[in-house]
Amino acid sequence: MLNQDRQRQFVSLMAERGWDMLLFYADQWRKDQFRCLVNVNFQGPQAVAVLFRSGEVRVIVTDPWDQEPVGAAVNGNVALSLSLTEGLKALFAGERAAVVAVNGLEQMEARYVEVVRAAIGSVPESATLDVEEIRRVKTPREIEWIKQAADLADRGYQQFVKVCHPGMTEFELVAEVESFVKANGAEDNFMLVGSGGTEVTGMKPPTARQFAPGDSVTTELTPQINGYYAQICRTLVIGEPSAKQLQAYSIFAEAQQAAQDLLRPGVDISDVARVQNDVFRQHGFGEYTGPQYTRVRGHNLGLYPDEFPHVLENIHYTVKPNMVIIAHPNTYLPLSGYMVFGDTLLVTETGCVSLSKTEKRLFQS
Amino acid sequence: MKRGLIVWDRAELPSEAFAARLSAMDQLCTTYEVPAVVVYTDVCRSNDVRYVSNFMPYWNRALTVVPRGERPVLLCSLSPRVYPWIKSVTVHETIVPSPSLPTALKKLCEERGWGRVGVVDRDGLPWELYSQLGDLVNIPHSAFRPAVTDAEIEMHRRGAQLARRLVETELTAGGSDFELTGRLERALRRAGAEDLVVLVSDGRSPPRSAYGAKVGPESSVSIALEYNGHWVKLARNLSGMTASLGSARRELLSGRYPWEGLQSGDVSARGQVVAIQVAIPRGDSTLYHGDTGFEGPNGWQLL
Questions:
Q1: ipTM of this model?
Q2: pTM reported for the whole predicted model
Q3: Contact B167, B221 (CB under 8 A)
Q4: Which pLDDT score, from 0 to 100, does residue A96 have?
């Protein structure tokens, strides 16, 4: 479908910036750069949507099977070109002297940028940051989809707990959870796992490692509904948790709660990171809040599972209503190894609400 | 998105296969008069670096740099916390943390005293890298991977056989396309699929992501499966209808992307792995059938 709310916002942006054409370039990795305007899960190597100041939208797809669903979203205004180079040449054949910007320019293959440059006489401007800023605040319809995704993340985690058992491998667990979320409507799912003890320093794709009693089994589970992701992070212990695992969990829970208590419009996102890190510092684990042990203390969510701003003490951004952010103080601690804990939070006018309903506890299998 | 089992099974793909590929990279250095060859990779364009070193970035971008006569260096945007895992599934022994890939490559060039280095398919670099990396020698993709090797063909064959066996087992009528997708995810990922894309047709429109349609006799499923870095595609329908795969929609599976459409005249004289998918009209419906094969001078042969 065409996201008409965004279409209006992007047309306004174009007028403000003086752009005649705004291209939304996406490959298979960054489909979000296209789907923020034309929300269709295309299958070809690339797709490009073109927005004109009039509001007209045209699309180039590179897979014949994309023509029908994309065409339905843009009133048939879709062209198939197995070669995007040829598709862009055809698009620009009558568009000389236009001022062109590209959302996703940074990821656009140079050969395609050169086609645009040849047509308009200069490298197109990047619209990525402007579009990101618009996308950061979700529309009511987008929030509904993220709520559905958060609900599925909760149910997916229930399945995770239900099927996880000693002797199972990481990849078998992922297969079970992936199967569950897909059978229940997920379009995609971003998921990493980790398992083991204090030797574990992070999460990664699943391996053939078998779960053993005492293991911490970590996951960030991120199902996608109609393009939009929600995420949940929880840790499960195989068997009885040790005193140190429980101690570690209490620190993570306290840190996540601190973020949730602080998050509201007007807050600097760096403070959302700081209050989480302060909890670790207060418990004597401040050194484990740095890049050697952790990546981010959360991030924005939407059509991409790792949207900016990242929640870090050196990132400054003023939080706005209707942003959707996961606060997750995931890091390594010598008490437990790598541990994760986080909820998807919707920023309201006065604070935030958690869209994740999964109990806040250290799970057991 | 990658979230299945990523392994390097040395019985399937021995170290010698990578040694031969790295040796060929040395030859490229000589041919193009460069001290090193750079290969780009990201989440969805991992085929080329996978070919060189078996590295697959489950997230983010990376560059593999193959200096002439030396082991490859991985410039990697992922956290050093996952480097032990990367080393366990790739030939990489040296991994350089690289929050900025252009900065890391320039630094490496300075340290080694290199002038211009070669890059495979320079114009395929993301603009962000292309515009910052400056003067690079382009090495055409066709020079880098001139023909699919026997080892690759065998990996594609294994993937195709796995996909055929499980899809034909799981493809039953009843339930929704979501449920069918879930069954396939479970079966194929438990069997070791690294990545999987399932599309379903209800007979009225081409295969697409599940949307809640009922699976019935007019339904078809099309899957793309990545097996240890090698993609296969196939399509089957509930009616069990088949068709000649001689002339239909063709997609290259052994190129830069997981798959990309081929024009009718795009035939490699030296061989490539190609998926063929056929639309079969039946009454008001269209069924789909397709598979993966090796396409060479003698035509297309099922793998």
A1: 0.96
A2: 0.97
A3: yes
A4: 67
